[in-house]
């Protein structure tokens, strides 16, 4: 608990307002939220989030992951999720640290670590997982965060502190998730290739056979393991990416709904409006009016 209390103090010192605060340490952001939030949709990146105060919900499809102080969430692939801070107040804000996973560094570390008995054909499991943070993981997170007090030490010591944090992650309860993502022919790596291809081509039509070919999988295997990791089919995944990107365009670029729909690959404005309403709970005009002015940076909190 001493580690958590100290991390709360450090995050408070380096965040003067609510939001996601990038730091001078590459890959590290600090997050502070003073009140419960409405659900915010976004796409996770491979990352580690450690909560030191408050409670957070992350929803993937129909599954809700709840984690609070002393717990961490690992996202091993890019996933469309709904984020919501559920326990926070001005006196006791939600606080967490977010570390983008350096996949080359993790890959190099994996090569140096003892081999495990896992194989590339092991089942993937969902791309999100929540666990209690070990004392070693919290200790490493604290040492990394404390470097913000001495910026002159960051260039030399931050890579070492981050490496220790990654090592603790690779030795922890959820290490298998990260290991499988790094194994070239693992199912998780194959699904990740499919996810990457869909992300890069989300505005174009595709066939399951094409995506399966990109992932070096059969169509039936792709369906099975893609749903296992993402809790949705490849087509549902594409649809969520399209709708979230269209929403971003309408908000950030002031596009009208029809233009945004066309840019993300919809030929039918009416179909776009129906699917947009189904995902966001309201048609584009009403939804944008409701969310305009909200802090979209809290997607990654």
From TrEMBL:
Please report the organism this UniProt entry assigns to the protein: Endobacterium cereale
By what name is this protein known? Helix-turn-helix domain-containing protein
Question: Record keywords: Isomerase included?
Answer: no
One of the entry's Gene Ontology molecular-function terms is: DNA-binding transcription factor activity
Q: Which residues cross the membrane?
A: none
One Pfam family recorded for the sequence? AraC_N
Q: Which UniProt keywords apply?
A: Transcription, Transcription regulation
Q: Which InterPro entries match?
A: Homeodomain-like_sf, HTH_AraC, Tscrpt_reg_HTH_AraC_N
Residues folding into a coiled coil are none
Q: Which residues form the HTH araC/xylS-type domain?
A: 192-290
The highest taxon in the source lineage is: Bacteria
């Amino acid at each position: 608990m001493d580690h958590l209390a100290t991390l709360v103090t450090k995050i408070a010192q380096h965040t003067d307002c609510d939001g996601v605060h990038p730091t001078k340490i590459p890959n590290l952001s600090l997050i502070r939220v003073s009140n419960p939030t409405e659900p915010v949709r976004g796409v996770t990146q491979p990352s580690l989030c450690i909560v030191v105060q408050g409670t957070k919900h992350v929803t993937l499809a129909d599954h809700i992951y709840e984690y609070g102080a002393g717990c961490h969430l690992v996202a091993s692939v890019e996933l469309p999720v709904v984020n919501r801070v559920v326990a926070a107040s001005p006196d006791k804000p939600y606080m967490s640290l977010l570390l983008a996973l350096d996949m080359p560094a993790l890959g190099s570390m994996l090569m140096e670590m003892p081999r495990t008995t896992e194989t590339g054909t092991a089942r993937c499991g969902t791309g999100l997982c929540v666990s209690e943070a070990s004392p070693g993981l919290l200790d490493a997170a604290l040492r990394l965060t404390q470097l913000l007090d001495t910026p002159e030490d960051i260039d030399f010591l931050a890579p070492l502190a981050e490496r220790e944090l990654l090592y603790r992650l690779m030795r922890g309860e959820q290490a298998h998730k990260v290991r499988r993502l790094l194994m070239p022919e693992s199912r998780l790596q194959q699904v990740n290739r499919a996810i990457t291809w869909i992300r890069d081509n989300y505005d174009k039509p595709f066939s399951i056979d094409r995506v399966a070919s990109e992932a070096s999988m059969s169509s039936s295997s792709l369906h099975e393991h893609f749903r296992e990791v993402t809790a949705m089919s490849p087509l549902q995944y594409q649809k969520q990416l399209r709708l979230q990107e269209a929403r971003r365009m309408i908000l950030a670029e002031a596009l009208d709904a029809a233009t945004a729909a066309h840019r993300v690959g919809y030929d039918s404005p009416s179909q776009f409006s129906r699917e947009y309403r189904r995902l966001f709970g309201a048609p584009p005009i009403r939804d944008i009016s409701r969310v305009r002015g909200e802090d979209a940076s809290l997607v990654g909190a």
